[in-house]
Amino acid sequence: MNSSAAAPSINSTGNGPDSGNVKGFSYGIAFAVIILIVMSAISLVAYCTRWVTPLGSSRSRRRALMVADQQDEAGLAQATIDSYPKLTYAEAKKTTPAADECCSICLSDYRDDDALRQLPECGHLFHLGCIDPWLRRHLTCPVCRSFSVNTPSAEFV
């Protein structure tokens, strides 16, 4: 018996029929990695910039926002808070048809005889016992964050 059977040859140059598949696979992996890096960069930029909100053109609003951020105790004087409109829920339903049915601070439903305070800038209503302490510590509405200091007679603590 002659053992001259042809042994499979190994192509060391990499030019065989399977070398194209390896190159294509390598390019596919590289392309997928590049796409993942680009998507991660876009996600990071979107996450970091979502906290950036325009403060408006008014320097006083920007200053008031910085003061409110720097000092937890920044708020309105009680005399200014007392100057804001006070009404019962029954009156509020007549004058404001879209009035909320509950206080956004304590989440209790309003009764017709409850004393409420209406913020002048945004018109939101709250129980007196809920909004007064809030305004002594904060300059903004707890619902919409509009400034409640835009009245000329506003006094700060």
TrEMBL record:
<protein>
    <recommendedName>
        <fullName>RING-type E3 ubiquitin transferase</fullName>
        <ecNumber>2.3.2.27</ecNumber>
    </recommendedName>
</protein>
<keyword id="KW-0472">Membrane</keyword>
<feature type="transmembrane region" description="Helical">
    <location>
        <begin position="25"/>
        <end position="53"/>
    </location>
</feature>
<comment type="pathway">
    <text>Protein modification; protein ubiquitination.</text>
</comment>
<dbReference type="GO" id="GO:0008270">
    <property type="term" value="F:zinc ion binding"/>
</dbReference>
<keyword id="KW-0812">Transmembrane</keyword>
<dbReference type="InterPro" id="IPR013083">
    <property type="entry name" value="Znf_RING/FYVE/PHD"/>
</dbReference>
<keyword id="KW-0808">Transferase</keyword>
<keyword id="KW-1133">Transmembrane helix</keyword>
<keyword id="KW-0833">Ubl conjugation pathway</keyword>
<dbReference type="InterPro" id="IPR045899">
    <property type="entry name" value="ATL71-like"/>
</dbReference>
<feature type="domain" description="RING-type">
    <location>
        <begin position="103"/>
        <end position="145"/>
    </location>
</feature>
<dbReference type="GO" id="GO:0016020">
    <property type="term" value="C:membrane"/>
</dbReference>
<dbReference type="GO" id="GO:0061630">
    <property type="term" value="F:ubiquitin protein ligase activity"/>
</dbReference>
<dbReference type="InterPro" id="IPR001841">
    <property type="entry name" value="Znf_RING"/>
</dbReference>
<keyword id="KW-0479">Metal-binding</keyword>
<keyword id="KW-0863">Zinc-finger</keyword>
<keyword id="KW-0862">Zinc</keyword>
<dbReference type="Pfam" id="PF13639">
    <property type="entry name" value="zf-RING_2"/>
</dbReference>
